[in-house]
Write a structure and sequence with these properties.
An eight-stranded mixed beta sheet has the order 3-4-12-9-15-7-6-5, with helices on one face. A five-stranded mixed beta sheet has the order 2-11-10-13-8, with no helix packed on it. Strands 1-14 form a two-stranded antiparallel sheet. The two termini are 29 Å apart. The chain has 360 residues and is of the alpha+beta class.
Length: 360
Amino acid sequence: MATTTTTNTTTPHVSSAIPGSQGASALPIIRLEPLLDPSSPQCLETAQALLSAFRTAGFFYLTDYSSLIPYAQVETVFEQSKKFFARPQEQKDQIACRSAATNRGYLRMGREKASSALTSEEIAKERQGTGEDMKETIEIGREDEEGNPNRWPVDFDADGVAFTSTMQAFFLKCKDMHSVVMRGIALGMGLGATFFDEYVSHGDNNLRLLHYPAVPPGGFEGGRMRTAAHSDYGSVSFLWQDQSGGLQVEKGHGSGEWIDVEPREGYIVVNAGDGQSVLARWSNDLIRSTKHRVIQPPSRRGKEETEDIPPRYSIAYFCNPNFDKWIEALPGTWENVPGGKKYEGVNSRDYLVGRLSATY
């Protein structure tokens, strides 16, 4: 995606390296196509590889998904997203997100602080230390949730109408892909392909469009990041990123070493939710998440900064179980484990709203 670089004539800054940062390292690569045909001999093999990637890396690249989501459709979503964020601030604020409970609408810069902390008090301390995340987003949920409509720009102009129809169609395509990935997880766990179907039928998911504005020279000093280190809250997350770079994942749990996740055309970055998330609870920690963050692009680290670092755009789709479902360790995951179940059961909606409330 094309970006604009703004010349700055002030004193050059040298972009400092983030502690622990390392070079790029390839994530596991999983093909989606074999999971679409349960009768295929490659289906079970792919499901087992998918589960292994979740267990060992927490992140992987997903490719060969165009029969579900055409690549051209993804490009259209990026184009519409860029047009939306270019709107005047006053206009975007007209469809602002009202609360974490609704999780629908626009979030301006500084509204959210991504974090792995569990309480608003802990996150407030992080805000004081490293500042707000340098991003703005728009949150989109399913269309038919009673009493919780999406906040669309449909009344603004023709572009707002096009944006709305594009995102409605894309949301449903991502919902279908979520179902396929969950079937792969079920097969890998030996549960039968359709085990999770009743848990994901509603599509209580969240499509998030993200814009990280251009950062002026010195903007990353003092540990500032475009998105602070965190892990996601639901079951599975899908991420499409432009070619800007800057996404990193932690190498192992709690290692403090970070690896660049290079953008690859036609690839989705997939990860499991956080250490107390749905997949962790279902699998009794068989599947665990990996922290990730967005910092300055690799090409700009440790160099003199005389120009703005260009903006970054990404598309995230956060998957959750149906909000009326009770989530606890599944049979076969805890009976022979010392201490048994590692987490108490939780309602899907209550868990998600509680985590979001602390970050807003």
